[in-house]
Automatic annotation (TrEMBL):
Bias-annotated ranges (Basic and acidic residues): 365-383
Record PANTHER family: LONG-CHAIN-FATTY-ACID--COA LIGASE (PTHR43767), NONRIBOSOMAL PEPTIDE SYNTHASE PES1 (EUROFUNG)-RELATED (PTHR43767:SF1)
Annotated GO MF terms: ligase activity
Protein's organism: Frondihabitans peucedani
Name of protein: O-succinylbenzoate--CoA ligase
InterPro entries xrefs: AMP-bd_C, AMP-bd_C_sf, AMP-dep_synth/lig_dom, ANL_N_sf, ATP-dep_AMP-bd_enzyme
Residue ranges of every copy of the AMP-binding enzyme C-terminal domain listed in the record: 294-365
Phylogenetic placement of the source organism: Bacteria, Bacillati, Actinomycetota, Actinomycetes, Micrococcales
Length: 383
């Protein structure tokens, strides 16, 4: 056993130093959001554990994912092999998220110093300044779609600006964290920005599938409609949660696999497509509807890139999709017209709820449980 030390991610530089020690055999670390130390962190973990990521996912149920140094470094090596090799990074994501710690791990593995943005509200000007400060010939960053959209707006407003130049200078801009609207990808590529869509989770040491292709030694399979992943980047276990560990990590054909909980498919070329969460399928009027499919169709519409689609009860249909958005630019009729060709008539949203801001979980993901309750209340009030 060895110590597990909680580290305040309000200072990403401190996380970098502590993580460097953890990868070298020192105390394991548990980064936590600024000013929100974890409750009763375990005093010790197994020697092979280097990092513990606390995440609530999209359901709000907390979990602590234990990752070994080997898994983290395997992820870094896989990324280098899939991209342009070791390079220098801009850290624009919170250092208590696995995507943020990945930037630090890959910087450590590459022996480069990352340019670190101050935690808090994303400042596109500060990002441009940090990106311009990079000196390595190979350059990367990792963003969520909302950050990318903000930077592209800045770049499009002045195509000859520093914003456009630094974005084009990156060998890859990794984008993950949620489904990335196709319109956003097209916008980036039209500006000459090399965007790579990533898929993964804390349980896989972050992104392990790039543009649908498993990287490094990662392999993907589909069992009973669920996407499963295996490889050296898998987490060890969930701290103090053997039941959840046993449910999520299974042995098949002599290999240990992670059950992602995502519905997906793999084509003849081995390209992975994620269609949504297994638990986001509703039955509306006797027909199955994937809320993930509906949400992707909605997010491809102008001004709807951050919209969330949740379920709501319906006396007539059983359950119906409801779109929740901040300042939607389109009417419900326009949204329905765009969704029907993709998800069928049963997938057409029943209502469009406007909110001032989307409620978020500590992980930064939309609070879907809270939004479902809001959708049910608003719909009941109008029935």
């Amino acid at each position: 056993m060895k110590p597990l030390v909680a580290v305040d991610a309000g200072d990403p530089g401190e996380v970098l130093v502590a993580l460097r020690g953890a990868l070298s055999g020192g105390p394991a670390i548990l980064p936590f959001p600024a000013g929100a130390p974890p409750l009763s962190p375990p005093a010790e973990v197994e020697k092979r554990v280097a990092l513990v990521i606390e995440t609530s996912g999209s359901t709000g149920r907390a979990k602590r994912v234990a990752l070994s140094a080997g898994a983290l470094l395997a992820g870094a090596a896989a990324a280098d092999s899939a991209l342009a090799g070791p390079g220098q990074w801009v850290l624009a994501l919170p250092a208590h998220y696995v995507a943020g710690t990945n930037v630090l791990v890959r910087s450590i593995a590459a022996e480069t110093e990352p340019a670190i943005l101050a935690p808090g509200h994303f400042d596109p000007s500060a990002f441009v300044e940090a990106a311009a400060s990079l000196t390595h010939s190979v350059r990367y960053t990792s963003l969520v779609p909302a950050q990318l959209a903000t930077l592209l707006e800045l770049a499009e407003a002045a195509p000859a600006s520093d914003a456009c130049a630094v974005l084009r200078r990156f060998d890859a801009v990794l984008v993950g964290g949620q489904a990335t609207p196709q319109a956003l990808l097209d916008q980036a590529r039209a500006l000459g920005v090399r965007v790579v869509r990533t898929y993964g989770s804390s349980e896989t040491s972050g992104g392990c599938v790039y543009d649908g292709v498993p990287v490094g030694q990662t392999r993907a399979e589909v069992g009973d409609g669920e996407l499963l992943l295996t490889g050296p980047t898998l987490a060890e276990y969930y701290l103090a949660d053997p039941e959840r560990t046993e449910a999520a990590f299974v042995v098949r054909d002599g290999a240990r696999w992670y059950r992602t909980g995502d519905a997906g498919s793999i084509d003849a070329d081995g390209v992975v497509t994620v269609t949504g969460r297994l638990d986001d399928v509703i039955v509306s009027g006797g027909l199955k509807v994937s809320l993930g499919v509906v949400e992707r169709a909605v997010r491809d519409l102008p001004g709807m890139s951050s919209a969330v689609v949740v379920r709501a009860p319906s006396e007539r249909w059983g359950e119906v999709p409801v779109v929740v958005a901040v300042a939607p630019r389109l009417s419900l009729a326009e949204v329905r017209a765009a969704v029907v060709p993709v998800a069928g008539r049963a997938g057409a949203p029943d209502s469009l709820l406007e909110v001032e801001a989307l409620p978020l979980l500590p992980s930064g993901k939309p609070d879907r449980g809270g939004l479902e309750r809001l959708a049910a209340e608003r719909r009941a009030a109008h029935d």
